[in-house]
Design a protein that fits this description.
Elements lengths: L2 E5 L3 H10 L6 E5 L7 H7 L3 E4 L8 H6 L2 E5 L5 E4 L2 H7 L4 E8 L9 E8 L4 H22 L11 E3 L15 H9 L9 E5 L2 E11 L2 E10 L5
Parallel strand pairs: 1-2, 1-3, 3-4, 5-8
Antiparallel strand pairs: 4-6, 6-7, 9-10, 10-11
Helix pairs in contact: 1-5
């Protein structure tokens, strides 16, 4: 029986994997924490693929060389390699992208491509990550059935910078659409929500909606952390 590994740190792909698990062929193990990624375990299990949807941790070179490891990146590579792809796309005004399935190599997001599938970018970050999880599982099922050969990337790479928490601050100017995108692109569990600081108060914004000239959102007030 063919064996596979599914490694993810977030609920979106894990929930979708569990929903479809019964129809997947082969034997599977799931890894959900960095400490679970054990070279000895993988060597003994001998998987055909090790899938890494929404993993984010560095995978040791020894594992990349010993196993066919697959990651999923939310851009049409080689455009948009690097960190925070969703936030970088929305802050640049993109309404859609491609979800690229890549063979993992030492070069970050630089490995050959198994396939690219369309991904729409409407809704909150949580909405988009759930949609991406569904597309990821579509790709995973296709790969298990067809075992495609990956194709080297073609073109000049564009690398996105990884965003920092302080960049979640609400912009002081710009169009309504930009404010809406700024709030929604950070509206997911585990991400630093859009915020503003007024005196002792920190305001965090979620649930954004746009209607003509107005942007509405939920706001949470808490005490700002003391300045260093």
């Amino acid at each position: 029986m063919t064996r596979y590994v599914f490694a993810s740190r977030t609920a979106w792909p894990i929930d979708e994997f569990l929903r479809r698990r019964a129809r997947l062929p082969g034997e599977w193990i799931t890894l959900t924490d960095k400490s679970d990624l054990n070279a000895s375990l993988l060597a003994a299990f001998a998987p055909r693929y090790v899938f890494f949807p929404h993993w984010s941790f560095i995978v040791p070179q020894s594992i990349l060389e010993s196993h066919e490891c697959v990651c999923f990146h939310m851009t049409d590579v080689p455009f948009g390699r690097g960190g925070s792809p969703l936030q970088n796309l929305l802050s640049r005004g993109f309404g859609g992208t491609k979800l690229s399935a890549l063979r993992m190599t030492q070069e970050l997001d630089g490995g050959p491509v198994y396939t690219k599938q369309p991904l729409e970018l409407w809704g909150s970050a949580d909405d988009i990550f759930r949609r991406a999880a569904s597309v990821t599982m579509d790709i995973l099922e296709w790969m298990v059935a067809n075992e495609p050969a990956p194709v080297p990337q073609c073109g000049e790479p564009t690398v996105f910078p990884r965003r920092k928490p302080e960049q979640s601050a609400i912009p002081l100017s710009g169009a309504n659409e930009q404010l809406y995108d700024h709030i929604r692109m950070l509206d997911a569990e585990g991400y630093p929500h859009a915020f503003a600081e007024i005196g002792e108060w920190r305001l965090e914004f979620t649930g954004a909606a746009i209607d003509g000239e107005a942007v509405t959102a939920k706001v949470k007030f808490s005490k700002s952390p003391p300045k260093a």
